[in-house]
Automatic annotation (TrEMBL):
It is a multi-pass membrane protein. This is Major facilitator superfamily (MFS) profile domain-containing protein. Belongs to the major facilitator superfamily. Proton-dependent oligopeptide transporter (POT/PTR) (TC 2.A.17) family. GO terms for cellular component: membrane. The chain crosses the membrane at residues 52-72, 79-98, 104-124, 199-222, 228-247, 334-353, 373-393, 414-434, 446-469, 490-513, 533-553.
Length: 586
């Protein structure tokens, strides 16, 4: 009998797939070869360049508009805040496009290219002599004098085209970077869930590093080598970041489009309005609901529940009661959302009038030093304050707060925001006092040191560390599960509206204080104005808003506590029913 040849045992390779994730070809994503830190790092490179570009423009734009484009102080400040406001507001558009049509990957790629195009136009605008007005014939005179020729329509048009194309690109990619980065980690896996928590820490770190590079290296290049070199470097950095991002396409994890939550809000609101004449059932059980993840019924805003009333066929299908409850939850968050806007109005002053203050002060490192700190680089103290405040909070504030509260995180999100609002109020008080001292000294023939501005930058930076993280935690925690993608948009819209509010209040103050031939508060010549009065006004607004926020926060019940309370009520009701059954049987 012939002997059979010896056969080697076959090795079976088991590939673990990630639930609800696909690769770039639409196949189920393999855990071992997709996602993780390698993919997330490529995505973070895009965010670093975005922050470098946006803040690099914002902190030094006011000096370009006043000194080179010959715009007034108020007009220059409004141009900066409008640029920042548009950048953050367009995040809502970018999020809608990503959730509904393109997905996060394509949204990041397309809008990064748009941002590069905008920066390219800005580079041309600052490099071409014909796109800038000629220098003032009397450089030592006042900027508003007849020796300075104002920019024409074409020059302003090209400049604003570059700015707002950059803002469009920033808004589009910023809305998707954090979400696409978190998509690279599987929340259902304990190890990857831990890595995802670390990803958000690194995300904030990369934002801070980009900010630090913007207010130091980039501002120095703009002031000493020329803006065309600074903006050109941003174009190169964005394009390199885009290539790094695209190179990771094969390793990314993708998720299917789920639609924008804004569509859900609009559908519920429209359905409730259409059925406004229908009687609302007394028992919520009569309303339509479906799905597994149902939210408990609440008694607020019951008029929206008409959207879940079942109508006879062939009427449109009703919204589910869970959809209605998710919209209610968003409405509960709006008072908190509204009372955080003034913080970012104060923050906007750090890139406008505080930079103008720095221009009028002694920026030498020493009395005999020839090197002058660029005015826009004073923002480094704001960024440094953020980097210091985060570890101080984790190492000192949290352990101390645990002794007085039952919260293991130290302070609740709303408590953190309230601390940030308090610090912003104190920052405006410090800014007002510093400006009064600077003006008095200047009129007496002295030039105070620019380092007197450090307290206001430091207080706003520390306030941002508390407010930014508190807001992000609040919106992520309190947004309904089906609306998580909108939480970033809600948060960033407060930054946008804060900038637009700054534009509005600057315009109103400038119009009111210049009427009747009076001396304006926001004069082009700082010594002839009353900038300190403007800061006192902002301090008063911030203080009033802090009181309103505390009142709102005291009345707010966190979603987790509300659900526990609802579960307790339901348990009591079930206990009562059980007692009744026992009584009947007895």
């Amino acid at each position: 009998m012939e002997e059979l040849p010896h056969q080697q045992p076959t090795k079976t390779v088991t590939m673990t797939m990630v639930d609800a994730c696909w690769d770039y070809k639409g196949r189920p994503a393999v855990r071992a070869s997709s996602g993780g830190w390698f993919s997330a790092a490529r995505i973070l490179s895009v965010e670093l360049n975005e922050r470098l570009t946006t803040l690099g423009i914002a902190v030094n734009l006011v000096t370009y508009l006043t000194a080179t484009m010959h715009l007034g102080s108020a007009a220059s400040a409004n141009a900066v805040t409008n640029f920042l406001g548009a950048s953050f507001m367009l995040c809502l558009l970018g999020g809608f496009v990503a959730d509904t049509y393109l997905g996060r990957y394509l949204t990041i790629a397309i809008f990064t290219a748009v941002q590069a195009a905008g920066m390219g136009i800005l580079t041309i605008s600052t490099a071409a002599p014909g796109l800038r007005p000629p220098p003032c014939s009397d450089p030592t005179g006042a900027r508003a004098s007849a020796s300075c020729v104002p920019p024409n329509g074409t020059q302003l048009g090209v400049l604003y085209l570059g700015l707002y194309l950059t803002a469009l690109g920033t808004g589009g990619l910023k809305s998707s970077v954090s979400g696409f980065g978190s998509d690279q980690f599987d929340e259902s896996d304990p190890a990857e869930r831990t890595r995802m928590a670390r990803f958000f820490s690194w995300f904030f770190f990369f934002i801070s590093i980009g900010s630090l590079l913007a207010v130091t290296v980039l501002v120095y290049v703009q002031d000493h080598l020329g803006r065309r070199w600074g903006y050109g470097a941003c174009v190169a950095a964005i394009l390199v970041g885009l290539l790094v991002f695209l190179a990771g396409t094969r390793s990314y994890r993708f998720k299917k489009l789920v639609g924008s939550p804004l569509t859900q809000i609009a559908a519920v609101t429209a359905a409730a309005w259409r059925k406004r004449a229908l009687p609302l059932p007394a028992d919520p059980a009569e309303l339509y609901d479906a799905g597994e993840d149902k939210m408990p019924h609440t008694k607020q805003c019951r008029f929206l529940e008409r959207a879940a009333i079942v109508e006879p066929w062939p009427s449109p299908a009703p919204c589910t009661l869970t959809d209605v409850e998710e919209v209610k939850q968003v409405l509960r968050m709006l008072p908190t959302w509204a009372t955080t806007i003034p913080f970012w109005m104060v923050y906007a002053q750090m890139t406008t009038f505080s930079v103008s203050q720095a221009q009028a002060m002694d920026r030498r490192l020493g009395a005999s030093a020839s090197f002058q700190i660029p005015a826009g680089s004073l923002t480094v103290f704001l960024v440094g304050s953020i980097l210091v405040s985060v570890p101080v909070y984790d190492r000192l504030v949290v352990p101390l707060a645990r002794r007085f509260t039952a919260n293991p995180q130290g302070l609740s999100p709303l408590q953190r925001i309230s601390v940030g609002l308090l610090l912003s109020t104190l920052a405006m008080v410090a800014a007002a006092l510093t400006e009064s001292h600077r003006q008095d000294a200047s009129l007496a023939g002295a030039t105070p040191s620019v380092f007197l501005l450090v307290p206001q930058f430091f207080l706003v930076g520390a306030g941002e560390a508390f407010t930014y993280i508190g807001q992000l935690d609040f919106f992520l925690r309190e947004c309904p599960r089906g609306m998580k993608t909108m939480s970033t948009g809600l948060f960033l819209s407060t930054l946008s509206l804060g900038c637009f509010f700054s534009t509005a209040i600057v315009s109103v103050v400038h119009a009111v204080t210049t009427s009747g031939g009076r001396r304006p508060w926001l004069a082009d010549d700082r010594d002839q104005g009353s900038l300190h009065s403007f800061y006192w006004l902002l301090a008063a607004i911030s203080a009033a808003n802090l009181v309103a926020f505390v009142a709102v926060a005291r009345g707010y019940v966190y979603k987790e506590k509300r659900q526990l309370a609802d579960a307790g009520i339901q348990q009591q009701q079930q206990q009562l029913v059980g007692d009744d059954d026992v009584a009947v049987h007895a």
